[in-house]
Every structure is written in structure tokens, then in C-alpha cells.
Design a protein that fits this description.
The complex is a heterodimer.
Chain A: E1 31-39, E2 43-52, H1 54-66, H2 68-76, E3 79-83, E4 86-88, E5 91-98, E6 109-118, E7 127-132, E8 142-148, E9 152-155, E10 182-188, H3 206-225, H4 230-242, H5 245-276, H6 279-313, H7 317-325, H8 329-341, H9 345-356, H10 360-398, H11 400-432
Parallel strand pairs in A: 1-8
Antiparallel strand pairs in A: 1-2, 2-6, 3-4, 3-7, 5-6, 7-10, 9-10
Helix pairs in contact in A: 1-2, 3-10, 4-5, 4-10, 5-6, 5-8, 5-10, 6-9, 6-11, 9-10
Chain B: H1 2-15, H2 27-51, H3 67-81, H4 86-103, H5 107-122, H6 127-139, H7 143-156, H8 161-173, H9 177-190, H10 194-206, H11 210-223, H12 229-244, H13 248-261, H14 266-278, H15 282-295, H16 299-311, H17 315-334, H18 341-349, H19 354-367, H20 371-383, H21 387-397, H22 405-417, H23 421-434, H24 443-453, H25 455-458
The chains are: A alpha+beta, B mainly alpha.
């Protein structure tokens, strides 16, 4: 009795393959799903549409027609909505059942169910997950779209339906029927009126952030003391040899301020960029740019070190010193600003590192902390130098081994930054390609 | 001034300004460092790409996609790069046809059709395109068109086994068995694989060599990929062959294997349902048919589910399934597909508009006088009272010596009605020897006919 078409296996094909132009584009036994997700600050609104072709309509009609609202309620169990892994329940709000005419004088069935799921704003940047598990074994078009209403969504889900909510199926020959069954979105709820997508970290991060802040302050202080800031420290020293406590203070503050401003300016540029591009898409490029920036910085530092080492061997440094010794008040401040305005590698690494883990706001706070640490250290050094320059001079010149170790430090830090830059660039490029 | 200079230099050197002999930082060294750094970058990139490839563990885990889905993804990606490449269009169309068989989603046929139409303008004489066109025509049961394309395919690509494959299928369905056998032989000599062995198996079955058919189908399964729809389909065919021989255990095992290959395989579930029904477990059969129909509501399986419901005494549920068969018939007509002969058999079996059934079968027989169409036509004519024509077509149905219990039963019943008791006894006795539970609908009738024919029982 079984017909057999060897190898061609067309039993499946059934002759239900639509040959006529007016056929249901997806075949007569599909159940097609559309899930439109709108995220409001207080709730998730679902617009759920089921479009049944002729055969499932014939099979299911009696049950659905008897109580469409109940059917919507039953379908809700198959729509899984999670906010940060906590499932929230979609409650039916509206039901609309129609029977658009199909082929062969038969009806099709279109059921539109509206749902609302309350959103308790426990955190300001929750992750929303949706999954449609209804009719999982049936073939058909499956579409999920999402957009925010008073919120901003970071998501790979499209914001517009390409089938006009299952009323006009695209018939591209080069694309398979859409089969999207789940999706995720990072929801940014409105806080105050900031245009920048900055949100306050969740309370459970507080300890971590305090530690990070302390580390940043420490790094800033350490950075101010490292030979990387030779120029400014020397300026501080010059003030120390000839100037007052006030001059030392001003110089230190100018350096710290301009440094922080420089890094922040860079950060604002970054944020402006990310406001134009969707964060999910911008991050790989930002990471790549950051990597390249650190790389260039490292290369520049290494080159500078090499040049200075080279120049020193030929004994040209003394002119530089002499020029610096004749600094006035104003030039002193200018020197401080110039010395600080180029963002230091460590601060940049802090900021860019925070960006690469998608925590811009944390990066900004850390950079400010870094500046505070820097200025604290510089002021300290300046004051110390002014107060006890003779002692410092004697002590440092007296310890040959310490002196030699310190001479290697700048080159070492330059190389470390270079390697860091290479690593960041390589990683971001790997993520991009 | 001179006093300050000495400590000044010392502090400058120690706190960061150039002060020591940094010989390791010559220009040459920097170049060397840069090269070393670049060399380091490459493994770093490799490591980080491994760490960041969480979304695509494809290189480490088996690909969850089916063969057809992989072919579709691959061809779509390539066609997006070069949208005007007619060869790629053909390739994608073939992939869609494969995917359609896997998923049961007929919208892939529409897409394949559009692609092939577009490709044809560019490739008026291409073997692959002809093969794809023939496959598409076969899936739409347009066997005359399939024969045209198949003939063309073998002319354009005489070295392609698949060209002979579509040709064999078209010839078999059109009832031209000698040509089909010759073409299948060419194909098998070219490449003995699942496609050729399975066709050999079917031709042997048609010619009455059921054991030979089983051997060939086992070879086909061995040659097939472990987890593919094609191999699963061959499992189902093997199960059908065992079922025809009445070996329900082996049949069940073959159907189960198809379900291991393709999760929820509708044909496998339907086969299992048939085994259950033959064993008298009607509730189990209903469950399995329901499962098959939920995934793929073929009229065959919908009708069989209705029969099981009817046998269970649930007339309402049976009527709903029979009505669904009618819905599908209307859709076939609306889609411009010639009504399938299977539906004529369904109508005949259920005394449902016998006149139409005879008409449909007669039209079909004029187009393709195959043994199965002859069988359906003779059965419809017999049931509608046209014994004369039924006898003629019944003879045609058995012209190859096919040992299909249903064919033999139909012929036996017709012979009995015509008064040829000895022929009827031979034919119906063979059905009984093969598989007394060959059909849920007619097994009971077989027993009573044999009782009537048995001279010993007449006592």
C-alpha cells in the first residue's frame, strides 16, 4: 500500500507544497508566532499573535473558539519571561480572535493575546529574557521583536516586525522562514534625566567598588611617584629647591587636575560615541580603539625612553635642566598642566578596562579617584621636597643600588604598557573578526 | 648654580629622567622587541579568540544542525556574497528540497521553485539544475514533468548518479519498470550508495522479491549517514518490508531505529502505530498516530488515525479525522495539485463518493499505469460494482508479481466475486501466510472470505 519514491523521500512533501501563487506562503499546516515585547519602566507588555494556517485551524478551532481568553491564558504558560533570572508571569489583558479566509474556501485563524507582566525595579539595569515555547514541534514562522517605551534596550532583537505582525510574510528566496524563539535585552531604566547611559551600580557591588576606589587612589599616588612623571616631579623638585610650599601645592594640583580632565575628556568622547552606536555593537570597536590607543601609548613611551637614554649618553640633558630652572609662576602652572594633560597610561587602562567590561560609570569614578590619589601624592612630594630637600638629595644620591633600580623602572613600565596594549588589541581584534 | 647641578642630575636620573647607561634600548633592540611582540600577539589572539568563542563552540561540539540545514546555511551565505551566481541558486534550491524533506515545511518548495526559475535564465543546459527541477516535480507528484527533467539530466550529466536517481523515480511512478530497472542498474554501477541501493530495493519489492528487497535496503542503510533523514526513511521502508512479511518484531525494530535517527520522525511513529494496531493494541496505535499527525498531518496517517478511532468505537473522533482528510483534499485542489491517488483509495475504503474515486483513479491511470494505480483503480471499480473493468485492472496490478498483501487481497476479493474460487483461495491464502493482520480495515474480511472459500470449513 505504501507508495515509495526511492531516495526522493517525497512522502513528506505530500502534495501540500503550494504551487499556486495565492497559497499560504508558509504552507497549509504551519502555526506561526509573533511576540512583540514592549518594555516600560513598570511593566513588560506582550503582544502575542498566533496565525494558524488552514489545517491547524481545522484541528484547533473548536477549542479556541469556545473560550479564546482561556486559550490565551493557557498560552501564557508557554511564554517564559525572566528578569535577571527571576521568572515573571504574563497576565492576559486582551484577546482578539478572527478567521481570515484561507485557501479552498477554508478559514485560517488569527488569535491576538495581550499580556502584561509587572516589572519591579529592583536594579536599574536588569537583563530581560523572553522565550516562546508554545507549539514547539510545529513548523512555522517565529518572530520576536522588542523595543523600549520610556526605557532603553540593549538587544540583538529587532525593534520592528518584518512580517507586519504576521500579515505580510517576506518571501525572500535567500532567507529561510524566520525561526526566533528566544531573545535577551539589557534594559536601562530612566534615572533622573541623564542623557548618558550611566546607571548607579547595584547595591551588592558596593564592597567591590570601595575596594576598586581605594586601589585607584593608590594607583594614582603610586603613579605620581613613579619615574613616568619625571618631568613634573622634577618641576616639583625645582620648586622645592628654590620655591615655596604654595608653589609646590599649585603645581601638584594643576598636574592632577589637568590629568583627570584629560582622561575624562577622552571618556566623554567615548560615551558620545557609544550613545550614537548601540552599546552592544560599539563595545567591540571601543575595545579595539582602546587597545590601539594603549598600544600607541606604550610604543611612544618606549620610544621616548630609548631617545632619552640615547640623548643622555651624549650628555644633552643639562640644557633641559637649565631651562627648567628659570621657571616663573605662570610657566610653572603651564608646566604642570602640560605635564598632566596627556592621560597617563595607568588611568587610561583603568578607564578602558572598565569600558571593556561594560562599566563606563565605574571607569569614570575610578579615574577621578585616580586623580585624587595623584594629587595627594604630588602635593606630598612637593611639600616633602620643599621641607626636606637637603635630606632627600643626600639620601637618594647616597644609595647607588636604589638609584640604578629606579633608572630601570621607567623603561620597564613603558614596556609593560606596550605589552598590555598588544594584548588588548589582539583580544579586541579577535572578538571583532 | 653649580652646587645644585650635581644633586640635580642625580635626582633626575634616579627619579625618571635619563641617567643611566641603557644600552639594551638601542634602535636595533627596539626592532627586535617589536618583532618579538608581534610573534607573541598571534598566539595571544588565538587564545583570546578561543576564550571569546562561547557562542560558537562548533569546532569542539558536534554540529546540532541537520544535513539539510547545514547545506541551506552554507548556500545562503555564499549566495548573499554573489547574488547573481546561477550555480549557487541551483545549489541553494537543492538544499531547500533536502530541508523540505527533513522539516516537512512545504514553503521550501516555493522558494526552490523561485530560485530554479531565476537560475534557468542563466543556465539553459545545466545537469544540476535539471536534477533539482526533476526532484521538485517529483515532490509535487508531477511525474511526467519529472521524467522530462530526469531525461535531460542524464543527457547533460551522464556521469552523475543523482541524475539517474530522479530518472528512476519518475519511470517507476509512471509504470515503466523495465526502463527504470535499467537506469537503476546504471546508477548502482556508478555509485553503490544509499540512493542506488534503496531504488534497487524498491524495484525488487515490486517484482515480488521481498527478501532481495530487504537485503538491498539493509545495504542502503549501512551506506547511509548515521543521523540523516534519508537513512531514517530507509529504516521505515525496511520496516514496511518486514511488515509485509508479517515479521512485526523486526518491523518494529526498524521503525524504532528511524526514530533514533530523527527525533519525532512522523513516518517512524506511523510505522510503529501500524505494528501496534496489527498486534491489537488500538489505544497505543491511536497515541502513536496522533504523534505522527501532530508533526506531519499526511492524509494517509490522518485517515489511519480515523480508522483506529472508529475501531475503538469513538465515531465522533473518527469523523473529525475523516473530515480533516477532506480539508486536505480541498487544499490540494486549491494549490493546483492533481488529487492524489491515495485519496481515491481512502474514499474507496470508506465508501465515500465511489464515483469520484473511480474517476480520479482512472485519470491517474491514464497518466501513469503503475501497478499501484492499477490496484487502486481495480479496487474502486470493484467496490462500485464494475467487476469487468476491475478484473482487467487487477491483472495489471499483479503483472510484476508484487507480493504486497494489500494488492493480493484486493485481487483475491475481485477473483472471488468473479467466481474464480481457486485463484481467490491462492491469493487470499498468500495474504494470510504473509501477514493476517495486514490491514486494520480488511483483516477481518480476509478471515471471513477464507472461511467461505475453505471447503473444509463449509462442512
Amino acid at each position: 500500500m505504501k507508495r515509495w519514491i526511492a531516495g526522493v523521500l517525497l512522502g513528506v512533501a505530500l502534495a501540500l507544497a503550494p504551487a499556486a501563487a495565492d497559497a499560504h506562503p508558509l504552507g497549509n499546516f504551519t502555526i506561526n508566532h509573533y511576540l512583540g515585547v514592549v518594555v516600560r519602566p513598570d511593566a513588560v507588555i506582550l503582544d502575542y499573535v498566533i496565525d494558524m494556517a488552514e489545517i491547524p485551524t481545522f484541528q484547533e478551532r473548536a477549542v479556541i473558539e469556545a473560550d479564546p481568553a482561556r486559550y490565551c491564558r493557557d498560552l501564557a504558560a508557554g511564554i517564559v519571561v525572566r528578569v535577571d533570572e527571576h521568572r515573571i508571569e504574563p497576565l492576559p489583558t486582551t484577546t482578539r480572535l478572527t478567521f481570515p479566509p484561507g485557501q479552498g474556501g477554508l478559514d485560517t485563524l488569527r488569535l491576538e493575546c495581550g499580556y502584561r507582566a509587572g516589572l519591579s525595579a529592583r536594579v536599574t539595569s536588569p537583563v530581560l529574557n523572553v522565550e516562546d515555547t508554545n507549539h514547539a514541534d510545529r513548523i512555522g514562522w517565529r518572530e520576536i521583536v522588542a523595543h523600549g517605551d520610556g526605557t532603553t534596550l540593549g538587544t540583538s532583537l529587532p525593534s520592528e516586525s518584518i512580517s507586519a505582525r504576521l500579515t505580510a510574510y517576506p518571501q525572500s528566496l535567500v532567507a529561510s522562514p524566520l525561526d526566533i524563539r528566544s531573545g535577551a535585552a539589557r534594559v536601562t531604566l530612566p534615572t533622573a534625566r541623564d542623557a548618558l547611559p550611566i546607571s548607579v551600580p547595584a547595591p551588592d557591588d558596593v564592597v567591590g567598588i570601595l575596594v576598586a576606589l581605594m586601589v585607584a587612589v593608590g594607583l594614582g599616588a603610586f603613579h605620581a611617584l613613579t619615574p613616568g612623571h619625571g618631568k613634573t616631579v622634577m618641576a616639583a623638585y625645582l620648586v622645592g629647591t628654590r620655591g615655596s610650599h604654595a608653589q609646590a601645592l599649585i603645581l601638584a594640583l594643576a598636574v592632577a587636575l589637568s590629568h583627570t580632565a584629560g582622561v575624562l575628556a577622552l571618556a566623554v568622547l567615548t560615551l558620545a560615541g557609544s550613545a550614537i552606536l548601540a552599546p552592544e555593537r560599539a563595545y567591540p570597536y571601543l575595545s579595539a580603539m582602546s587597545g590601539a590607543l594603549v598600544l600607541v601609548l606604550g610604543a611612544w613611551m618606549v620610544a621616548t625612553r630609548a631617545r632619552q637614554a640615547h640623548a643622555h649618553r651624549h650628555g644633552h640633558t643639562h640644557e633641559h635642566d637649565r631651562g627648567a630652572t628659570s621657571l616663573g609662576w605662570r610657566s610653572l602652572a603651564a608646566l604642570g598642566l602640560a605635564g598632566g594633560v596627556v592621560p597617563s597610561a595607568s588611568a587610561l587602562v583603568l578607564l578602558l578596562g572598565a569600558i571593556s567590561v561594560h562599566r563606563i560609570e565605574l571607569g569614570l569614578v575610578l579615574v577621578i579617584a585616580f586623580g585624587v590619589g595623584m594629587s595627594l601624592a604630588l602635593v606630598g612630594v612637593g611639600q616633602a621636597l620643599v621641607g626636606a630637600r637637603g635630606f632627600a638629595e643626600r639620601r637618594l644620591s647616597g644609595h647607588r643600588r636604589l638609584g640604578r633600580a629606579l633608572r630601570f623602572a621607567p623603561s620597564l613600565s613603558a614596556i609593560i604598557v606596550l605589552i598590555l596594549g598588544l594584548g588588548m588589541t589582539a583580544q579586541s581584534l579577535a572578538a571583532l573578526l | 648654580m653649580t652646587q645644585t647641578r650635581v644633586p640635580n642630575t642625580a635626582i633626575a636620573g634616579e627619579l625618571g629622567l635619563p641617567g643611566g647607561r641603557f644600552g639594551f634600548l638601542s634602535v636595533r633592540s627596539i626592532i627586535l622587541y617589536a618583532i618579538a611582540a608581534l610573534v607573541l600577539t598571534i598566539p595571544m589572539a588565538a587564545v583570546s579568540s578561543l576564550l571569546h568563542s562561547g557562542s560558537e563552540p562548533a569546532t569542539l561540539l558536534p554540529d546540532p544542525r541537520t544535513i539539510g540545514q547545514r547545506a541551506v546555511d552554507d548556500a545562503q551565505a555564499r549566495l548573499r556574497r554573489t547574488p547573481d551566481d546561477a550555480h549557487l541558486m541551483t545549489q541553494l534550491a537543492s538544499a531547500y528540497l533536502q530541508r523540505a524533506r527533513e522539516s516537512g515545511d512545504p514553503s521550501y518548495y516555493t522558494k526552490a521553485d523561485g530560485l530554479l526559475a531565476a537560475a534557468q535564465a542563466e543556465l539553459p543546459a545545466d545537469a544540476d539544475l535539471a536534477i533539482a527541477e526533476a526532484s521538485l516535480a517529483l515532490s509535487r507528484h508531477d511525474f511526467a514533468t519529472a521524467l522530462d527533467w530526469g531525461t535531460r539530466a542524464t543527457a547533460l550529466g551522464p556521469a552523475r548518479p543523482t541524475a539517474y536517481g530522479v530518472l528512476v523515480d519518475a519511470l517507476v511512478e509512471l509504470g515503466r519498470y523495465d526502463e527504470a530497472t535499467a537506469a537503476a542498474q546504471v546508477m548502482t554501477d556508478m555509485r553503490p550508495d544509499l540512493s542506488s541501493y534503496s531504488r534497487i530495493s524498491y524495484l525488487r519489492e515490486l517484482h515480488g522479491d521481498t527478501n532481495g528487497a530487504i537485503a538491498a535496503m539493509r545495504l542502503a542503510i549501512q551506506a547511509g549517514p548515521l543521523r540523516s533523514e534519508a537513512t531514517a526513511w530507509c529504516d521505515v521502508q525496511l520496516g514496511n518490508l518486514y511488515f509485509a512479511l508479517g515479521d512485526l518484531d523486526l518491523a518494529e525494530r526498524a521503525y524504532r531505529r528511524s526514530l533514533e535517527r530523527v527525533d519525532g520522525y512522523a513516518h517512524g511513529n506511523a510505522g510503529l502505530a501500524r505494528v501496534r494496531a496489527a498486534r491489537g493494541d488500538l489505544v497505543g496505535a491511536a497515541t502513536l498516530y496522533e504523534r505522527a499527525v501532530a508533526g506531519l498531518p499526511l492524509p494517509d496517517y490522518v485517515g489511519a488515525l480515523g480508522d483506529v478511532y472508529a475501531r475503538l468505537g469513538n465515531a465522533g473522533a473518527a469523523a473529525r479525522q475523516y473530515a480533516l482528510v477532506d480539508v486536505e483534499r480541498r487544499l490540494l485542489i486549491a494549490n493546483g495539485v492533481r488529487i492524489d491517488a491515495d485519496l481515491a483509495l481512502f474514499d474507496t475504503d470508506h465508501d465515500h463518493d465511489l464515483g469520484r474515486a473511480v474517476e480520479v483513479a482512472r485519470v491517474e491511470y491514464a497518466v501513469r499505469p503503475s501497478v499501484h494505480i492499477a490496484d487502486i483503480l481495480s479496487w474502486a471499480e470493484f467496490r462500485s460494482g464494475d467487476l469487468g473493468h476491475a478484473l482487467v485492472h487487477s491483472e495489471q496490478a499483479l503483472r510484476l508479481g508484487t507480493q504486497d498483501p494489500l494488492l493480493l487481497y484486493h485481487a483475491g476479493a475481485i477473483a472471488q466475486a468473479a467466481g474464480d474460487d481457486s485463484r481467490a483461495r491462492t491469493l487470499l491464502g498468500r495474504v494470510h501466510d504473509l501477514n493476517p493482520q495486514f490491514s486494520l480495515l480488511w483483516a477481518g474480511d480476509l478471515t471471513s472470505r477464507l472461511r467461505d472459500l475453505d471447503p473444509a470449513a463449509a462442512r
